[in-house]
Amino acid sequence: MKRVRCLWVIGWLCLPLIALARPEPSPALVLEPAQQQWLDEHREMRVGLVLQAPYAQFDRRLQQFYGANVELVGAIAQALQLDLTWRGFPDQAALEHALQAGEIDFAPGLTQTPASLRLWLFSDPYMRIPQLVVGARSGAVAVELEKLAASERVAVRMPGPLADYLRGNYANLNLQGVPNEREALQLVLGGQASFAVLDEAQLSRLSRESEFADLAVVGDIGLPQLLRVGSRRDWPMLAEVLERALQAMPAKTLEQLHQRWLQPKYPRFSESAGFWQNLALLFGLLLLCALATLVWQRRQQRALERALLAARESLVARQVREEALRLSQFSLDQSTLGILWVNWDSHVRYANHAVEGMLGFAEGALLERPLADIEPNLSMDRWLELWRRARAGEGGDQQFETQCRRADGSALPVELSLSFLRFRDAEYLVVFVADITERRRALAALRESEARLKGIAGNVPGLVFRLERDPAEGDPEFPYISEGSTALVGYTPAEIQHPDMGLRNLVHPEDRADYHRVQDLALAGDRDWSWQGRILTRDGIGRWADIKATTRRLADGRMVWDGVVWDITQGKQAELALAASQEQLRELSAHLESVREEEKARIAREVHDELGQMLTVLKLEVSMCELAYAELDPGLNERLASMKRLIAQLFQLVRDVATALRPPILDAGIASAIEWQGRRFEARTQIPCLVQVPDNLPSLSDAKATGLFRILQEALTNVMRHAKAHTVQIILEHEQQMLRMTVIDDGAGFAVDAARPTSFGLVGVRERVLMLGGSMSLDSEPGEGTSLSVAIPLQ
């Protein structure tokens, strides 16, 4: 009976709770046909969220959004059966920029402003977030902002619409701006501000922290923040559908959403503070009774945790040491260097795989063997001496080369290194065994190569050298000079390698400056160098030498020049003799050309003067006969007329021969002669010829004028015979102390490098230019015409 009565009482007390827990009937979501049709065509929507706790946040670990606005949109999507794509933005500006770019369709949690109406279509408010006044819990009273004194500071986030509202409606407030709501509450806790004003959502987020447990809500400024759902303006049907979904959402759902995310966790000032004091007194007794038990349990728990932590650290350290030991053992076993651990009695206690394979023993066959079985020359007395030195840390022969006996009895050249080791209260001498067979083979090959190099260098008919320069010191030196130096200059290699000697002091004094210039440039630029000149032997005999050196960089950074000094005395003497002979031939050719031109001038004068006079007398005699006897015989008159025509042709032939031998126009100057030759060439070939000559040319010697004129004749002859040109240009220029003549045609051209063994025209032109002390340049390409330029000195 008592149990039934108790159950009845409990049920009677729970009736109000059951009534409260009963779900409120929600209005059915009914859409108009046009709205339903539009929704069926737009099931996929893009939602934009401003990431601000507690409205919307992103969990990077779970890769999902959560918060009050997220749950609201989730309920709308479930009611409308939407497929959502979420995007988070750091602030309202980024969200509106994405809307303008067409990247989102709607966004929850927006506040309607005149500026935002140009971008969004807003729903009716679905949540009201009050702006609260927060103060200290102890001694707090209800606060009215109009009655606050000027000495009481009010912390508020600036800049922002809340601060603008307080500044515009409460002129008496002493506002203190802070960057965020957390600092506003911290100023109240620290006594630097009396109150803080912030919205209920931020207070809900911060009130969960124990730091702000001593704060309470002491007032409401009467300016709620109305949260709406904004949608894109070009989809008005979407705004209507969202409005219907919000209207169909139960009020209980929105209230639960507000309590779960936005309701502060500590009571408002409007709730009874005495209730919490009584509740604290009620639980105080229980706390006092459980305090001793709790302290004892904490002490036991901490002691147990410390013991467990110490055991865990010890276990981890042991595992680390074991792992390091296994790695060390594995490294020793797999090392390519042979390792032996030998006790003081010279018996092997450990041998790795490398030394077993090196000596040809099976695995474990070396253990407990005396070291003398491996190295017969290592007697016990010598072993004990090595043990003593290694134990005392002395040097000496702790690293040496010897030969070990392999399992098959063959000898193996090795290098032994000894190191003393204490391990687990025992002493060992670690013997490192390195196979040096390849090293000795390479050393023997190197010695053979050096001997071969010395033999080759010693038989070279000259001097082979090597020049090195250290980058740190910078001074070059000769680490190697071949034995051929004695035969070449009479000095031994050691004498030339002396720092005060070198190759520089072998050079003839007159050529030493040029040699220093070439070698210094090569050393400064780290490049190859070559030089020809005279050197002096020990006896003072001069010889011609050709020095060539190539450079390379060693691995340590040093620069090396490998070179050879050849004796080219005979070849150089033959070359100088040939050059002298060529010079004599050129002088002879010039002399013959001068004689020929003088003979041509003499013959031209004689032909012009002697033959001209005779022809003139003959023409007078014929004319006298014609006057005296022409009327007597008509046939005689015809014969005399024929004779006069022959005499006239002979006059023209004499003038042509005299002009060909030496044009009289040369006496008028080279400029007039060039113009005359151009007009004559144009008349003979019908090829337009443009002549450009300067005024007031300085005087030119007769030999140079004649030579330049002959060069022009040869050039125009080549144009006429081979060029097939349409135009020719002759340019005469005065350049300082030089006179330059250029002949340009637009003919067929030719390859300048092509060999033409039967053509001596250009060879003759080049020789004439050299005889005149000038220079010639020829530029031509097939199909591009030809340009011949000649420059001769005026003096």
From TrEMBL:
Domain PAC: 398-448, 529-580
InterPro entries for this protein: HATPase_C_sf (IPR036890), HATPase_dom (IPR003594), His_kinase_dom (IPR005467), PAC (IPR001610), PAS (IPR000014), PAS-assoc_C (IPR000700), PAS-like_dom_sf (IPR035965), PAS_4 (IPR013656)
SUPFAM superfamilies registered for this protein in UniProt: ATPase domain of HSP90 chaperone/DNA topoisomerase II/histidine kinase, Periplasmic binding protein-like II, PYP-like sensor domain (PAS domain)
SMART domains: HATPase_c, PAC, PAS, PBPb
Segments forming domain Histidine kinase: 602-795
Signal peptide start-end: 1-21
Keywords assigned: Kinase, Membrane, Signal, Transferase, Transmembrane, Transmembrane helix, Two-component regulatory system
Ranges of residues in domain PAS: 449-526
CDD domains for this protein: HATPase_UhpB-NarQ-NarX-like, PAS, PBP2_BvgS_HisK_like
Highest taxon of the lineage: Bacteria
Membrane spanning stretches: 275-296
Molecular function per GO: phosphorelay sensor kinase activity; protein dimerization activity
One Pfam family linked to the record: PAS_3
Gene source species: Pseudomonas xantholysinigenes
Gene Ontology cellular-component terms listed: membrane
Protein name: PAS domain S-box protein
